[in-house]
Amino acid sequence: MSDQPTYPPKAKPGDRVAVLSPSFGGPGMFPVPYELGLRRLREQFGLEPVEYPTTRKPDATPQERAADVHAAFTDPSVTAILATIGGDDQITVVPHLDGELIRAHAKPFFGFSDNTNLLDFLWRHGVVSYQGGSVMTEFGRPGAMHPLTEASLRAALFDGGEFDLREAEDVSTEVGHWGDPATFEALPPSEPATPASWHRADRVVEGVSWGGNLEILHWMAAADRLLPAERYAGGVLVLETSEELPSGTEVFRMLRNLGERGLLRQFPAVLFGRAMAWSFEQPKDAAQRAEYRAEQRAAALRALDAYAPDAMAVFDVDLGHTEPQQVIPYGGLIKVDGPARRITVTY
Questions:
Q1: Which residues pair with 283 in a beta bridge?
Q2: What's the Cα-to-Cα distance from 126 to each of 78, 111, 115, 332, rounded to whole Å?
Q3: Which residues lie closer than 8 Å to 152 by C-beta, 6 or more apart?
């Protein structure tokens, strides 16, 4: 991991930005949040979205999606690339990507969840990207974009430099169905946010970030897509879980497997995103959500105690599958200041 990551040039208002579906062509099935996200890109950010053949195509092949990724990176009129949403099969797209081509035309890429595959691919080819900021979820949020999310996205897209992550005062967990237009007429319900929880916060760690969605990382490990553990030494590990709501037992087992690989001990600091704790299949109430997050935190601490006993950890950071979401540079610099209880990212 390089201590001097390469940040692609920033976009600026008025620029054209690619809008891609490297995983699931969600816009073809749920046009309302997608069109809302496009409108906010135009009206609030002053950017002109550019679609590609598979952006709205739910059944696009891996080869077709890879071709769109190549086209977006090599298009000289495009200055940034945003994923529409995640999915579950981007792992099949990565073998069709040309890393040298993409590195030669490096641009900021924004996405999370299944886009962990592409974030990692860019990291391995020396390009800083951004975990977060999907069109259908963050830009297409019902009612309005969350102010914390918007501030983070503006800093990552346009400004660069250091940015202190702020703790949310309120969080949204329950979501309306995207097939119902009424969902988008009001803000999602919210509840007071619990503060971040710091573990072994007696030092300052600064390093290059790596990680992503834990379930996707587990798939990548099974497909032998990870590098030797020593290549990650000294970095800041960023982890979060999805709306599939893996149990504490599952979270421990996934982390244990990474620990047995020798991976966890490479990172002196770990950031865990605030766990999503509600889904249509598991509609947990407030008490159950708190219990679920506590169970996941205990599972993570158990794994760290076994495989990275000296690591500093911060839980309930507003990143990943959470609302509000703040953007995390992937392969970029993060400073975790335990005594000051401050997380500073470099966009």
A1: none
A2: 20, 17, 17, 10
A3: 132, 163, 165, 325, 326, 327
**What pLDDT is stored for residue 190 in this prediction?**
95
How many alpha carbons fall within 13 Å on the CB side of residue 32?
13
pLDDT tens string 309-347: 999 999 999 999 999 999 999 999 999 999 999 999 999
- Buried b or exposed e, range 164-201, using 16+ CB within 10 angstroms: ebebbeebbbbbeebeeeebbeeebebeebeebbbbeb
Contact present, 235 and 1 (Cβ < 8 Å): yes
Tell me if residue 106 falls in helix, strand or coil.
coil
By C-alpha distance, which of 257, 168, 183 is closest to 214? 257
Looking at the chain, the number of H-run helices and the number of E-run strands are: 8, 16
pLDDT surpasses 60 at 44:
yes
Judge if the upstream peptide bond of residue 324 is cis by omega within 30 degrees of 0: yes
Residue of 216, 209, 295, 205 whose CA lies nearest to 7: 209
Distance CA 229, CA 218 (A): 14
Give the strand order in the sheet containing 328-330: 48-51, 16-20, 78-83, 109-111, 129-131, 328-330
Strands 162-164 and 129-131: unpaired
Burial-class residue 2 by CB neighbours within 10 Å (0-12, 13-18, 19+): exposed
- Asked if pLDDT for residue 3 goes beyond 70, the answer is no
Closest by Cα among 225, 255, 260 to 237? 255
The string of DSSP letters for 194-249 reads PPPEEES-SSEEEEEEEEEEHHHHHHHHHTT-SPPGGGGTT-EEEEE--TT---HH
83 strand-pairing partners: 20
User: Which domains can be identified in the chain, with CATH numbers?
Assistant: 16-160 (3.40.50.10740), 170-346 (3.50.30.60)
Indicate if the pLDDT at residue 2 is higher than 80.
Answer: no
Whether this prediction's pTM lies above 0.85 is answered by yes
Please state, in angstroms and rounded to a whole number, the distance separating the CA atoms of residues 176 and 154: 26
Mean pLDDT on 126-152: 98
Dihedral sign from CA coordinates of 265, 318, 10, 37: positive
